[in-house]
Amino acid sequence: MSILLEIKNVWKQYGDAVVLEQLSKCVQAGEFVTIVGASGCGKTTFLNMLLGTESYSKGKILLDGKPLPSEPSQDRGVVFQRYSAFPHLTVLRNTMLGAELSASPYLGIVFNRRKFRAIREKAEKMLESVGLSHALNSYPHELSGGMQQRLSIAQALMKQPRMLLLDEPFGALDPGTRSDMHKLILALWKETGITIFMVTHDIEEGFYLGTRLWVFDKVRFDPHNAEAYGAQITYDINVDQSSKRRLKKELELELEKSEQAFGASE
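Below the sequence we write its predicted structure tokens.
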């Protein structure tokens, strides 16, 4: 596998408040990186920097050896915990919209019948792959939570991005639906070979899904200024079956201490 993403001494701060510091990692194409850490430690901020909706303060992030575009682009798909569908469009038209906007940036409407048919067929195949072929003409409010997240994943993958960014996408789902979504995202990852970054608060989920698990935590503290230092990647674990149980218990204890530390600093 080739290196897809390089993170070189990246820092993020807002004024004097340091959120992230000294982030340096390389990620190969096709890896599934899960990210855990205490609430408020900068996990979502980091994901937003990869997406391009947040800029980093210092350092470099390189995609294929070139600076990561500073605005969202079609090489990065994203799925949030909150659903992102347009309520007035059907499941099919929601999935088609990204490709339609690329083909017709000003109107978002494709008048060429051949192009429109090609986009429609691609969207139908994508929805079939996420298990929504029976709901093409349904509207978002008619879908369950799990079905809405399946739609979000179809939307994110429609443009065939290099990276898929997941920000706690299954946190609001019931356990049974979440288990089904785990199976779906693993199947899509294996089928497409896409590189995935996923933020989660669930360590078990992180170990189950990821091939690599990062832990964000502070290693430096100033008792007089809680915002003087930011979180770093304190663990970078290549996940395999033999290590999961032992490491999961160790990290649960570490994160419990970290949650208490972040809570005390607020």
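The two ends are 42 Å apart (CA to CA).
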